[in-house]
Specification:
By secondary structure, this protein is α+β, with helices and mostly antiparallel strands. The chain has helices spanning 2-21, 26-35, 48-62, 80-85, 87-105, 124-133, 207-210, 233-241, 268-275, 287-304, and strands spanning 24-25, 66-69, 74-77, 135-141, 150-162, 165-172, 182-185, 189-198, 225-232, 249-254, 257-264, 281-285. The chain has 10 helices and 12 strands.
């Protein structure tokens, strides 16, 4: 496990170093690696052999290509624009860049504040390795509705981070009758180990398509419908700068309000996200969702009056 974590640190370091430099030579990589705090063995160089091996690992694990211009012997990220558009790739680069910056900051750490995250991230390297090798996981899990944990074999399909929590999507062996995979929160895992048993990844499973109609990870409702809301112009700035869902569309601005539409499943997760805007947001359609908000507003009024 420790070796896997160190390898991921090294891969992230290499990716961030090349991404930040835009173009960089092997001697420059060697020099930066010699000075890096991730270089625990105090190696004098990164090494051409390591560089080429880790380029292949990065391509396989993260789908990011590191290319070399033979005319200049400079390394760069292939199709750099794709990294900026892809949320996972951008998240990987940004996360490690921030982590690297904080570690280098030394005594500045107390002046940089991050949001706390759940402790499920300790299982990430195990899950990524299992996905890469297509091996099953033996999971011991306790959902909030269960009084006791239960154990099962899990075929991991993909990982998703949502609101400071990590989730794994996979097919459990204790629900063989279900066609769709299930979603498990890593912070509710009591134990998770990779076992020496393989599984076959479904060719038709696409992670983005699985969550296409969802906000967050809630899949109690999977059918999307058109939802229209209006916000005060001030609060619309927050929705505009950080869209709730990829289907979010700004319709118009009128009378001090901005109108947005979504094509998304009206799950509990999505409704909770709308609720955070309080009385500055009004649900206009569909009528069923508007009625739900009306009933909740009445209940809130009774509670506080």
């Amino acid at each position: 496990m420790a070796a896997q974590v160190k390898l991921f640190h090294r891969l992230f370091w290499l990716l961030d170093t090349i991404y930040s430099a835009k173009q960089i030579s092997l001697p420059q990589i060697d020099k930066r690696w010699e000075q890096s705090h991730y270089n625990e063995k105090h190696e004098r160089e990164y090494g051409k052999r390591n560089l080429h091996r880790h380029r292949e690992d990065i391509a396989e694990l993260f789908g990011i290509e590191i290319v070399c211009d033979r005319s200049t012997n400079l390394y760069s990220i292939g199709e750099r624009g794709d990294i900026d558009r892809d949320s996972l790739r951008a998240w990987l680069v940004d996360t490690f860049a921030v982590s690297n910056m904080v570690n280098l900051a030394g005594d500045m750490k107390d002046r940089i504040i991050f949001e706390e995250t759940s402790d499920g991230s300790r299982y990430l390297s195990t899950i990524v390795s299992a996905m890469k090798e297509q091996r099953l996981l033996y999971a011991t899990y306790q959902g909030y509705k269960r009084s006791e944990p239960h154990s099962f074999l899990l075929a991991p399909y993909c990982l998703k981070v949502c609101r400071r929590r990590w989730y794994v999507v996979g097919k459990p062996d204790d629900h063989p009758e279900e066609k769709d995979p299930r979603v498990y929160a890593l912070d509710r895992m009591k134990d998770l180990v990779m076992v020496d048993k393989s599984y076959e990844m479904p060719k038709d499973f696409k992670a983005k398509a699985f969550f296409k109609n969802q906000y967050g990870v809630d899949r109690t409702i999977t059918e999307a419908e058109k939802i229209v809301v209006r916000l005060t112009n001030y609060d619309a700035n927050f929705m505009r700068s950080l869209p709730i869902h990829h289907s979010q569309t700004e319709l118009k601005e009128e009378g001090g309000f901005t109108y947005f539409s979504f094509y998304v499943a009206p799950t509990y997760d999505f409704i909770q996200e709308l609720r955070k805007f309080g009385s500055t947001l009004e649900v206009l359609e569909p009528a069923s969702l508007r009625k739900k908000f009306q009933e909740e507003a009445k209940n809130m009024h009774k509670m506080y009056c």
